[in-house]
Write a structure and sequence with these properties.
The structure is a single chain. The chain is α+β, with helices and mostly antiparallel strands and 249 residues long. The protein folds into two domains: 2-174, Nucleoside Triphosphate Pyrophosphohydrolase (Alpha-Beta Complex); 180-244, Winged helix-like DNA-binding domain superfamily/Winged helix DNA-binding domain (Arc Repressor Mutant, subunit A). 19% of the residues lie in helices and 43% in strands. The chain is built from four helices and twelve strands; from the N terminus they run ββββαββββββαααββ. Strands 1, 2, 3, 4, 5, 6, 7, 8, 9 and 10 form a ten-stranded mixed beta sheet that branches. The chain has a two-stranded antiparallel ribbon with strand order 11-12. A hairpin with a 3-residue loop joins strand 7 (97-109) and strand 8 (113-122). The chain is globular. The N and C termini lie far apart (46 Å).
Length: 249
């Protein structure tokens, strides 16, 4: 028997941190919110129901990856399609769903190998989950391995850490070039706001002059200003034609 499920990697900016929505399991582990798909249900519809359950307004939503190894399920074939979603986090009424701050930082890197650390933490419930991610160059592909760190209080269930890692790579590597960052900003924003969100997601500081030079290729002034501290800053909106432009930051 084949069982199809959808899982949602729901992320957003919460209290100046990148946050991810996780679901508490009966065995004490955490996973991505997941739902079984009925035979007459579209995948997008099933995924949107997960978003509705979180109580958040979705600003970005697309398929990320499909997990389909033959031995994923216990007795049945289990195929999971993951969705990447960006939102403005709000507290959910579902007690099983909790927001965790999340970071991914590079610990070591050379031409053949990269080691990174993914950390997810919720201080209110005293939970911390740390994984070491190793990317190894193998001919024409990259082999990815994950290891739970001893400082973790629990684990990510099943193989959902693979999906979380892929989502973090997508955000950190393509949040600007793909225009994803503008789904985490108000419709009208300052250049400083764009840089702040980027630095939260990437975990690194950018030179302001160089950053603004590149961002100005993607946005348009709206003809309004807003007072920030003791000066006025110009407001901009995103130019959706960025999808036809080449280049990355």
């Amino acid at each position: 028997m084949i069982i199809n499920t959808v899982a949602a990697v729901v992320t957003g900016i919460k209290q100046d941190h990148l946050a991810i929505l996780l679901c508490h399991q009966k065995d004490g582990s955490w996973s991505l919110p997941e739902k079984e798909v009925s035979s007459d249900e579209d995948l997008d519809h099933a995924a949107s129901q997960i978003m509705e359950q979180s109580g958040c307004k979705v600003t970005y939503f697309r398929q990320l990856y499909t997990l389909g190894k033959a031995d994923r399920g216990n007795k049945n074939r289990l195929i999971t399609t993951a969705y990447l979603s960006l939102t403005s986090p709000v507290n959910t009424e579902d007690e099983a769903l909790k927001w965790f701050s999340i970071t991914k930082t590079t610990e070591y890197s050379d031409s053949n190998r990269r080691t990174s650390l993914i950390t997810m933490e919720n201080t209110e419930i005293n939970e911390k989950i740390c994984y070491e991610i190793t990317d190894t160059a193998c001919d024409c592909y990259i082999k990815k391995d994950s290891y739970i760190k001893p400082e973790s209080t629990t684990i990510i269930g099943a193989d959902h850490i693979k999906l979380i890692n892929m989502a973090m790579d997508e955000l950190q590597l393509h949040v600007i070039s793909s225009g994803l960052i503008f789904s985490l900003l108000p419709k009208e924003f300052t250049l400083k706001q764009v840089q702040n969100v980027y630095e939260i997601i990437s975990g690194e500081k950018k030179d302001t002059s160089n950053f603004r030079r590149d961002i100005l290729k993607m946005v348009s002034p709206v003809g309004k200003t807003v007072k920030t501290y003791n000066k006025y800053a110009e407001l901009y909106s995103f130019n959706p034609l960025i999808q036809y432009l080449k280049g990355d930051l």
